Amino acid sequence: MPAPALSAAQTAAPGTAEAGTLPRHAPLVVATRDGLVESVHFGSAIATAADGSILATAGDPLAPFYPRSSLKPLQAVAMVRAGLNLPADLLALTAASHSGGAKHRGGTQRILALHGLAVGDLENSTDLPYGTSEREDWLRTGFRATQLTQNCSGKHAAMAATCVINGWPVKGYLDPSHPLQQLIAATVTELAGEEAFARSTDGCGTPLFALTLRGMARAFGAIAAAATAITVVSTSDDGGTAPLLAEAAVGLAMRQHPDMVAGDRRDVTELMRLLPGSVAKDGFEGVQLVGLPDGRAIAVKISDGGDRARMPATVHVLESLGVDTAPLAGIATATVLGGGRTVGLLHATDFLSKPVNEAP
Fold this sequence. Notes:
Elements: E1 26-33, E2 36-48, E3 54-58, H1 72-81, H2 88-94, H3 102-114, H4 132-140, H5 153-166, H6 179-192, E4 198-201, E5 207-210, H7 213-229, H8 246-256, H9 258-261, H10 267-274, E6 279-283, E7 287-291, E8 297-302, H11 310-320, H12 329-332, E9 334-338, E10 341-348
Antiparallel strand pairs: 1-2, 1-10, 2-3, 2-8, 4-5, 6-7, 7-8, 9-10
């Protein structure tokens, strides 16, 4: 039996959080074939200033959505505030949706070993490596889906480690009532500057919060700006190294180790390599966040969850902010082939509009 259609009343108010409301997305990316538009990806986008004010928008950026894995840097900030102290490469892995390569699997095991934990303490779901070549290599050796190869294993190892550090129960660390998840929820609210509109469970089992693109952009702008401010680690009076602000620690780790945040041949890793000072994270269902060194940020959500449209839309917003996107040409578009030759392109539309009115 087909699902009932949503009524006009359910689609009337952009930016509302009522159940069943359809966001008013706009056409962001098109695929052309010999001059004809063959496919259209709708979505929403926003660019924010360092103070969180809105610079430009498209679609319905105040409509609640699930940020999925783009929440990981915010979750990492909460864990650092709770005493998690890891080398930069492992902190980057904490904020990662990694490809499941040897360095990612080994990094997860290092986090566990540093805190007297084992893979059996992880509570994430099982999966094959996310990266294409990593998955093929893993299957070629006869291995199956595991918790270690699942793309969120670094975050889960860090969650278990944070529990050990604080004397909290490791078992059940994903329960929303657990002290760890309560701290994460409060930190997400603080960084985004808004309360969650709804709550759910992410694919790996972690509590998930519905926020707006504006809220997520604010958070990434704060993380990127904090990392920029800490260009030289200050020294405390007793000669020791003063602890970094949690936001700065996470942002710096991601900048320094973009290969741990995603992996080789992943567009998020390439973006951070090609755009120095940026802090970027993707999320399932067509989500992309980028924080810039000066605190500006962008957030993109592709309505159909199509991953191919995420980066062309992102690069278009970056260009609108005056960022030199020439180095990003390789990830800003993709060719459409016909008979082995290029017959079209995947590219962004001219979708940005004037800033929307601030929600009360």
